[in-house]
Design goal:
mainly alpha, Sugar ABC transporter permease, MetI-like_sf, 0% strand, cell membrane, transmembrane
Length: 305
């Protein structure tokens, strides 16, 4: 490694130490827990106080794909895919539109608007859930009051037909600011000469968007899509706080893992079992990995065109 490649360090020593520490932290806090979860998924662990536990092979996986849990698991899988696909598509589309609007130099106060758009991202899950619980309060919330003006009312998060879509709406509201920032960075990196040349060639706003903006934003689109998919597939806190943990209409895989590991009820398909929860999390890991890798491969091919 040449000396100039050691920036921001003056020599290779601090660079190697920093890299070693980072590698050790990654190994301890990422690889070790991942391997531990895989091992636990082959046991009948039910509460830490019962350690050491019994090795049961593939029994948890056979139980997961068996008839006894099939209805609940398919329901959780369906909700997870709906949550991930809808939240990602809407979030990316909305964020791109907002970013283009906020990138307009003629827009007055655009820095204030950028701060407002990014603000929900820093509120945290609990505060966000509290805000929207009040907004959708069934007895006096502002949205219910508006519906009452038209002679309508709703149970909102208590209505299992629409609860999942309301959680998706809140999820988009909470994380959209991050996607906007990524798109803004991509937009500001596009050379203005490209717009000037395309304008001379007679390209209108739509043609410039299609043939200049979108291709140049491909790396930002890839980053946002992957972040959106991974966040959505792993999200459970918002659903837990807004709708509770055991509602079929909003049951997703990550929430199922949490309930199975820490909050299940005896005598039900969600009875507490850390071994079974670990098996579900491994199924979720494979699902997230397959979807992420397939999406990344598709987006990379599009970037290279």
């Amino acid at each position: 490694m040449s000396e100039k490649n050691t920036f921001p360090f003056s020599s290779k020593g601090p660079l190697r130490i920093t890299f070693g520490i980072a590698l050790a932290v990654l190994f301890v806090f990422a690889f070790v827990p991942a391997i531990a979860v895989l091992v636990v998924s082959f046991t009948d662990l039910r509460g830490v106080t019962y350690l050491p536990t019994k090795f049961i092979g593939l029994q948890n996986y056979i139980q997961y794909f068996g008839l006894g849990h099939r209805a609940d698991n398919l329901n959780a899988l369906k909700n997870t895919l709906i949550f991930a696909s809808l939240s990602t598509i809407i979030q990316i589309t909305l964020a791109l539109g907002i970013a283009i609007l906020l990138n307009n130099p003629k827009l007055r106060g655009r820095n204030i608007y950028r701060a407002v758009v990014f603000m929900p991202t820093v509120l945290g899950v609990t505060v966000t859930a509290l805000v929207w619980s009040l907004m959708f309060n069934t007895s006096g919330g502002p949205i219910q009051q508006v519906l009452l003006l038209f002679g309508k009312n709703s149970a909102f998060f208590g209505d299992q037909n629409i609860a999942l879509y309301l959680v998706i709406f809140v999820q988009i509201w909470m994380v959209c600011g991050t996607s906007v920032i990524i798109f803004l960075s991509g937009l500001q990196a596009i050379p203005q000469e490209l717009y000037e040349v395309s304008s001379i060639d007679g390209a209108g706003p739509w043609a410039q968007f299609r043939f200049v903006t979108l291709p140049m934003l491909s790396p930002s689109v890839t980053a946002n899509v992957l972040l959106g998919i991974v966040n959505a597939l792993q999200s459970y806190q918002l659903t837990y706080v807004l709708t509770g943990a055991d509602k079929k209409g909003t049951q997703v895989l990550s929430l199922q893992v949490y309930m199975q590991a820490f909050g299940g009820r005896s005598g039900t398909t969600l009875s507490q079992s850390q071994g079974y929860a670990a098996a579900i999390s491994m199924v979720q890991f494979v699902l997230v990995g397959v979807i992420t890798i397939a999406t990344l491969a598709y987006l990379r091919r599009r970037e290279q065109k």
